[in-house]
Records
---
Amino acid sequence: MRKFFILVACSLLMGGASAQQDTLKYRISLKDKAVTTYTLNKPEAFLSLKAIERRQKQHLAIDSTDLPVCRKYIDEIRKHGVHVVAVGKWDNFVTVSCNDTKQIDRIAALPFVRSTEKVWASPRKKKISMATTRDSLINNPVIHPDSIYGMAITQIHLSNGDKLHDAGFRGKGMTIAIIDAGFHNADRIKAMDNIKILGTKDFVNSKADIYAESSHGMGVLSCIGMNKPGIMTGTAPDASFWLLRSEDEYSENLVEQDYWAAAVEFADSVGVDVINTSLGYYTFDDKSKNYEYRNLDGHYALMSRQASRIAGKGMILVCSAGNAGIGSWKKITPPGDAENVLTVGAVDKKAVLAPFSSIGNTADNRVKPDVVAVGLGADVIRTDGNQGRANGTSFSSPIMCGMVACLWQACPTLTAKEVIELVRKSGDRTSFPDNIYGYGVPDMWKAYETYQQQSSGNVSHVNNQAFINK
């Protein structure tokens, strides 16, 4: 599969019938928010209480990127007969669909428009655009009475995540958003019936069934959220989840990054703490949009710009490094090049690098991947409700994501950036990080002990330079 890393209200989505018939989509980047009706002195008018509290707790300023896209600008754009399919306030854009490039030319001439870019074109041949069937269920997983983790014990024990669980840190009170391509049968699999799902949202197609679309997100969810002792326990079994769809597996276009940006802002609005995304992009159906190595600077791709802002909003992004290690590309893929995120490569259960795991560094010479986790022979739940194995950094990322959530639960005074740096510093290669393993396999218990030592030394964790990522 080209998009997935697998081998085997802050957003606006219009799903009307007319929009579905449009053949083009454009990202309209705006110059400013000069005619906003909001003010930074009254953030409660445009941010949820949870989002405000998260920023206050971490001493993060509410700034102009938090202001909604100007409604007047959106209304003026709509007057030209286009349909709004996504809105992103952090990067200040509006994505629209239409049938006529002349409409876009007129929009480009508006005084508040900075630039326009085509991000999707309807394929010449009509393709499937929505899942209509479900896989058959068996719902008869194997019971392993010797371990609550079942066969998945090694993928958490490798980083001593089970020690955090034993100490009572299982993700309770933490909210995780999974931004993916679909969560096939997650609502019908008996072994997943006690995962705390707070809600779902589809940013690709509001008419689609998020539980009928791709199985990819379901496998990702199982790595984190499973809570069936003897069958499988995930890395954050007591966490709560938002399931968000931004990936359109039926094509490969830039517009999916627009959906992803909108999903991230939605996650912010509903009070998410940690985001996992096992998606990444470097080639597209429109080959002129393909990325080059020099673009891996954390800011060139919309997805990377958005990802680089996440920690500054008080959340942590954990993302897959990519599976291009044995291909011609080899490198990490956006948003894995972003700043202040945890980009996760893949190893086997003996901590040996998976040959497909993408490598760094970034174009500006930052260490990537940041860390590694089990992604070769990772234990997951399959769409039939039974256990299985899967390969890809798609799974090393959520395995790490759940442990990061548990660590943050255990270290509640740390900021998002401090947790990210603490995880890096606990890696088994932290003294000599490289572009293959990054900082290596993190020891989450060691990270927790470091936090405890800092706490007992009466050190201010907000200002502790040992934890802040420069």
---
Amino acid sequence: MIQERTIPSLPSIAPVSREEGLKLYEDMVLGRYFEDKCAEMYYRGKMFGFVHLYNGQEAVSTGVIQSMRPGEDYVCSTYRDHVHALSAGVPARNVMAELFGKATGCSRGRGGSMHLFSAEHRLLGGYAFIGEGIPVALGAAFQSKYRREALGDASADQVTAAFFGDGTTNNGQFFECLNMAALWNLPILFVVENNKWAIGMAHERATSQPEIYKKASVFGMPGIEVDGMDVLAVRTVAQEAVARARAGEGPTLIECLTYRFRGHSLADPDELRSKTEKETWLARDPLKKLANHLVAERLVEESELEAIRKRIQAEIEEAVKFAQESPEPDASELYRFVFAEDA
């Protein structure tokens, strides 16, 4: 019998200002509307290959990445990377163009859905195989510490966030990298997006310790469980972990209990999850939760949120138009970017 975990609650959530609340809401709406448009384009035959959407998990990306320094701190993703890229500041038009395989895409049309990358925005990539990104994130965190402590670069106080799913925590990279991060006291956040399912395998059936945050204890690092459907709760935990990392106090493992509203990918008929389970989580939509909070606290008017939704929808439509009109990668550049090039 699979045991249902209760959603954790924080005794005190960091207060949010009107400006912060609007920024968080806008970022989550951007992620949701972008993914909805991806589904439309995929089923219309405009996108190809595997496309894994993020609907339902927006509070995790927004809560963590918006607690970091855009363009300075590092973000490392998975194959479910569109929204991480958007939260990191990669323009929607360049992400959409990448999904269309166009030269104007953030990976020059070479990466597609699972391999978004942007050096400018410190997005270290999406990775098709689970766990691949964690050692890359570890390396980014190591170079920050090395530059600061060994090379005397006082400006090297960057923090890295590595995102991955619950299924990844059964892989060797997870344990090896947590061990090294603890040994070297690295400025990194290990962010587990526990959406309960590793493709078609229920999380509770795949691991001897379903409470992932507890696995941090054996490495002597803080492990925190948080409601991944509440952006303010995620933000509170992330702000504390980022501050610790930047102050030289080492890594943190954050387990965000969340849920994907769509199938594993757009090719997944999503027949394994029960209707009751899906409806229970849909009722906890993170966008609606934040919107209700902002209105209830009289920080914003509903009309302001509606204006944001309309503006984001127009931005997404413009991104599609940009992607459709962008050129295909030129065949003469087939072998470019195979090896490093001079700047």
---
Amino acid sequence: MEKDMTKGSPMRLILGFAVPLLFGLLFQQFYSMVDTIIVGHYLGVDALAAVGATGSVNFLIVGFCMGVCNGFAIPIAQEYGAKHEEHLRKYVANCVWLSLIFAVVITVAVVILCRPILQAMKTPVNIIDGSYSYIVIIFLGIPVTFLYNMTAAILRSLGDSKTPVVFLVMAAILNIFLDLLCIIVFGMGVAGAAVATVVSQAVAGMCCLIYMYKKYTILKLSKEEWRWDRDCVGKLCNMGIPMGLQYSITAIGSVILQSAVNGIGSAAVAAVTAGGKLSMLLMCPFDAMGSTMATYGGQNVGAGDLERVNKGLKSCTLLGLIYSVIAVGIVYLAGRSLLLLFLDAGEEAILNNAYTFIRTNVLFYFPLALVNIVRFLIQGMGFSKLAVFAGAFEMLARGLAGFVLVPFFGFRAVCFANPLAWIFADIFLIPAFFYVRRIMAGILEKSKS
């Protein structure tokens, strides 16, 4: 169902959009957690480390795909806010063509380079084969990654954050079943977890596509609208590629950091994997806030209402602060118990390190909230290129940790790498927002005169 975010209470609209999106993200993390739980408990610590060692390179590639799709949806949200339905449909059509091209090119490239990348990251010898078996299947599934993220982003740009959640719930249930079938029954090892993830995402993507085709008359494209349009392609790339690069540049820092963790040993990799999985679950509300602000910003800039953008930023920042305090309480009261979802109680040293990791990270969740809220708002306002610089600041911080701090201070330096990255990003993003607001005010003033 479409939702116009240019009218009504910003706080109510943000909550109404973000809560369904949050449930979707939680279910997405849920079936990712199921992979980790089943792998950790049924295949052992080395298998858990094998999957964990691919996390940063997975984010590097898949994060780029997700960022591109989210960027493609920004002009669609802006045209929806401006009530330009014909232009909206042209952007949707060209979004489809570009996604097909990107999916094919990226899949071929990364599958060929997969093992050399793992070797360059100093993946431990005892887990590199498992890491390759897992990540190469994930990369072969990049076309379905584009399918789901493209269709979900288009639905969100129209204000519909609920429908993708429904299909993610279905995918999560399917993923659990396929995990158990592939790993336990068929004995496919870590490759089985990857197969389950790809198939589940394919089902979610197809369901979104069919739903869009049947339910949204605004998306009924004519033959003329399906044509390749150079202007639309230019604007889509101008939004999508910088947003994808922002994810990837951020991930390069994670790759550097992961390489440093790999050098400490597979036990450290397992601890970061377990702590990272719990952290990703706890960070879902911030991801939901970010995606909400991209749509909110896009629609309201399209409507020419900059004051509503400011009000939305204040409302979402307050939500981010409240949840950050709640997250600290969750981790300090129940963090160690939650980590037992991924690790056996007998792995005492790994468990202690994982708890140190998550306990350190959660203290800096409010800076992370600002990263997501402000960065995605800037992108929704049409300034995606600035996000690349924010990603560069994060990369710089994680690179500093990986190259300099971890060799001297070991695992404790790993625990502070993410907080350092979030603070670095905020140092850039907060002044950038005031710059963008001033530019947009000038543009809107000229359009009225």
